[in-house]
Amino acid sequence: MPEGSKDWTFPKYYSRLQRLSKVILSLSDSNYQAPAIIGFAEIEEARVLDDLIHRTALTKIPYQYIHYESPDRRGIDVALIYRKDVFRLIDSKTLRFHWPEQPDYRSRDMLYAQFEDSLHRSWHFVFCHWPSRYGGQQSSEPKRMAAAKILSGFLDSLELEADELLLIMGDFNDEAHNRSLQYLSCDSCQTPLLNLMEGRTVSKGSHRYKGEWAYLDQILIRPEMQKWTIACEAFAPSFLLEDESKLPGKKPRRAFKGPFFGSGYSDHLPVYIDLIIKTQPLLD
Asked: Which GO terms describe its molecular function (predicted)?
């Protein structure tokens, strides 16, 4: 907003939209097909999504958006856009964050959407932006454990059939080995998940802090879907990176440096998954 600390103006806003569309189009596959579905961790309002798909180079792609206002203290929400020529929307809703230890604490909702593809298969997506590590990873961990329990309980309530597909993705503000993510992938879970970022090399990641890369942004799937997964990485073309000023190596090229708007994109790299969907059942 113009009156906010970032001193937004229309040229800044329009530039931000153009950069975002550039990243999305850069993720197109070898057949120039744009991503079928994209989740966003920090969206202020629905107008941003409407402008993104109608006032940038994305206008030629049949994208539609899903957005709900959440009670986050900073006024940011999660949202998604999807290609209407690939998916038909069946249902969408939010999963409200609640932390029993502090009932008045507010954070982003999680966003759930169910789709059907051209083969009449059911797809379930959940996009997340879990509470931050503000105050330290350990002291803030109970908030993300609360989010993990909300998500796990919701997934169990879906009672998925064997051939339904499930993807969980977003900014979890935890790594795969942390308790919150381990909670989702434990063998005792009614709906166990496979975290595709678990066990990755420390030389790569979606976020860099004090010279160390980490995957705070992750993608989790039903284990049976691994056979259809051909790639799952942080997207790191050169235009999204810049030299670290005081340490060796590169870091994400962020849009703002303090209050100053520059030529960057984000302090996180996007993560993506490429799936080759076969016509045979998910479970052979």
From this structure: catalytic activity
CATH value of 10-275 in 3.60.10.10, 2.60.40.10, 3.40.50.150, 3.60.15.10 = 3.60.10.10
In the beta sheet, which residues pair with residue 205?
none
Check residue 174 and give left, alpha or beta (phi > 0: left; psi -120 to 50: alpha): beta
Distance, in Å, from the CA atom of 49 to the CA atom of 7, rounded to the nearest integer, reads 20
Cβ burial, residue 38 (10 Å; 0-12/13-18/19+):
buried
Q: How deeply is 263 buried, as exposed, middle or buried, from its count of CB atoms within 10 A (0-12, 13-18, 19+)?
A: exposed
Domain ranges of the chain: 10-275
pLDDT in tens, 21-38: 999 999 997 677 899 999
The Cα 67–Cα 137 span in angstroms is 29
- Per the listing, tokens 């998604």 go with 80
CA dihedral 10, 13, 14, 18 (to 10 degrees): 170
Which one-letter amino acid corresponds to residue 89?
L
Nearest residue to 26 (alpha-carbon basis) of 65, 57, 63, 66:
57
* CA 240, 23, 223, 171 torsion-angle sign: positive
The residue ranges of DSSP E strands in 74-159, in sequence order, are 77-83, 88-95, 110-116, 122-129
**In this structure, how many other beta carbons lie within 10 angstroms of the beta carbon of residue 97?**
23
